[in-house]
Design goal:
This protein has 322 residues and is of the alpha+beta class. The chain has 3 domains: 2-53, Arc Repressor Mutant, subunit A (Orthogonal Bundle); 62-266, 2-Layer Sandwich (BirA Bifunctional Protein, domain 2); 275-321, SH3 type barrels. The protein has 10 helices and 14 strands. Helix 4 runs parallel beside helix 9 (235-256), helix 6 (148-162) runs antiparallel to helix 9 and helix 6 packs across helix 10 (259-266). The radius of gyration is 21 Å and the shape is globular.
């Protein structure tokens, strides 16, 4: 990651310069560049001149992130950990709970084993997105978390709107979408007692800049913030605002319930009134999207009446794409 930090400004750096600053050989520099390219980082190799990132990268500055978070959260600060490269922020956040207890936030510049819903791979590039997880301990059991992924989606969209990024909708139960494709997603993992104390980990992935050749690996259209806005938000500021929003949400969700966020979710429902199909159940369910109920279950209107559909293994798609 040190090599990428040296290249992060987007300028051309010679192999000699990089080797000197890293105290390694030029051959090792070449090998590391090749390794990052194979991982999806777009690096231009300029014969006789050196190396240059296709696009500059803003890496997180923990002091700047924490300054903003502390200003708003004050006496209710979570424990925040920012890593360069790890397997999974969800796994790391869960591990940190054993040492630091509840209210853990773990961010990473790069996830080697990022995952989405139903175990799907979440493709990441170093510094290319917001990759973070929030680990909270609750006393009220699984049922108190109904609709949590939807509420998290609302908060994320509202953060983006405050940065002037509009046109982002919500796809039940855990995706941020635009007309161009998927922008981000939420992964909820819960361990503990169904009716008693449990630990919940909320994983968030938000695409900031994903190279085209990485987008092509994904089995559905994806988009990033670079494609949606002329002026990219400062990553430190954006990350701090996400931490603040999700911290406040998790501190109050079990007392408020999803109903507190429901109307805001409905205003951003990307599938409202659309012909949809749900797969993953006993058989596909075709109908028209009719929003969600107070518990966050999807409502689908069919010729035989209103169907109430809960999460689990269900997958939502536009009917015409089938």
């Amino acid at each position: 990651m040190q090599l990428l930090r040296l290249l992060a400004d987007g300028k051309t750096h010679s192999g000699v310069e990089l080797a000197s600053q890293l105290s390694i050989s030029r051959m090792t520099v070449s090998n590391r560049v090749a390794g990052w390219v194979s991982s999806g980082v777009a690096i231009d190799v300029l014969p006789g001149r050196g190396y240059r990132l296709e696009r500059s990268i803003q890496f997180l500055d923990q002091d700047k992130v924490m300054e903003r978070v502390e200003k708003i959260c004050k006496g209710k600060m979570p424990f925040v950990c920012i890593k360069e490269s790890i397997g999974s922020t969800n796994d790391m956040a869960a591990q940190l709970m054993s040492t630091f207890g509840s209210r853990i936030v773990c961010l990473a510049e790069y996830q080697q084993q990022g995952r989405g819903r139903r175990g799907r791979e979440w493709y990441t590039t170093p510094g290319g997105g917001f990759y973070g997880s929030f680990a909270w301990h609750i006393q009220t059991g699984f049922h108190a978390l109904e609709g949590l992924s939807l509420a998290v989606g609302v908060e994320l969209v509202e953060v983006l709107e405050r940065f002037g990024i509009n046109g982002v909708g919500l796809k039940w139960p855990n995706d941020l979408v635009t007309e161009y494709g998927k922008l981000g997603g939420v992964l909820i993992e819960v361990n503990g007692e169904v009716e008693g104390p449990c630990d919940v980990v909320v994983g968030i992935g938000l695409n900031i800049h994903i190279p085209d050749h990485v987008k092509q690996k994904v089995q559905q259209p994806v988009v990033d913030l670079v494609s949606l806005t002329r002026e990219l938000p400062d990553k430190d500021h954006l990350s701090a605002e996400i931490i603040i929003a999700i911290t406040l949400l998790l501190d109050s969700f079990t007392s408020k319930g999803f109903g507190y966020w429901r109307e805001r979710w409905l205003r951003r429902d990307a599938f409202a009134g659309k012909d949809i199909v749900l797969t993953g159940g006993h058989e596909p369910l075709n109908g028209v999207g009719a929003g969600v109920n107070e518990q966050g279950a999807l409502l689908v209107m069919t010729p035989t009446g209103l169907n109430i559909c809960y999460g689990g293994e269900l997958t939502l798609r536009r009917a015409e794409t089938q």
